[in-house]
Amino acid sequence: MGEKIYNFAIIGVGVIGSMHAKWLQEIERAKLIAVCDINPAKAKEIGERYGCDYYSDLNDMLSRPDIDIVHVCTPSGMHSEHTIACARAGKHIISEKPIDTTVAKAEEMVAECRKAGVKLAVISQHRFQDSTVQVKQELDAGRFGTLIAGTGAINWYRSQEYYDSGEWRGTWELDGGGALMNQGVHTVDVLQYLMGPVESVTAYCKTAGHDRIEVEDIAVAILKFRNGAIGTLLGTTCAYPGLSARIEVFGKDGSAVIQSDKLVHQKFRDESNQENNEAVQAGTGAANPSAIDVGGHMFQIRDMIAAIEEDREPKMNGEDGLRPLRIILAVYESARTGREVTLPL
Fold first, then answer.
1. What pLDDT score was predicted for residue 139?
2. Residue 107: helix, strand or coil by DSSP?
3. Which residue, of 107, 122, 156, 171, has the fewest CB within 10 Å?
């Protein structure tokens, strides 16, 4: 691999965008050269903090020929708009989760990136944690046997002040949903990544612990997987003061539990004396969206550079980003209609 330095830019420098700016300082072959935000003061603040140019007009920034990769960190419902603008300007894109808030917009993102010949990666950092990687390897090796059940739960907390901090938060238009779409999308992605495609969903959603939000702060779903396994999904932002995210995988010959990105249990029928580790909940974002482990994000940024140089797909591409989105939208449709919803939507 060569020694080319890649020039990065960021669209949207709120909580998560400013974190991306910080993380880019740690990537050996990355240089942050520009940021853009509709709030000129915020753009100026982050630009001056990291010694890069700053813009409030996206077209002005994208007209620069020296930008290689753009991070899209705007509200979820604007990801498609900004990704397509970047693709048409010939830039590779790393989009924050979820890929967008509707299947139609997400599919348009993927199509426009393919048409422009640029790479699209979607942030799903928990796929690349050591715990997930280890369980996936054992699943692929067949050590779990026939899969029986899988569960995902994200028991997090967000205050009313969190939702009040931005007009887009907690809205269908720009947040696209609540506890599942914003906070729970990572758990949904990892669960389906490990257990396989979801065939159908039956769900209930409710706004129970917050005021002035349109979306759910608790969702419960029963999942039927295509391989015959069944499962459950729980997402909430009402679990004061913010507990853990947990994924459980059960097969005929083995079981595993990932809690707050730590593999706290894994046992197989042919190996009964495996050590269990204690769960570690620090750095999970359970109560504070800025308190998250950066390892997976760093991996995905480096992977984008490698994908460009090796002319391959990023390890979490646009099609991958569509899978958890379809499941979450099926949950919402089931909750709305009171019926079982079959995938794909």
1. 98
2. helix
3. 107
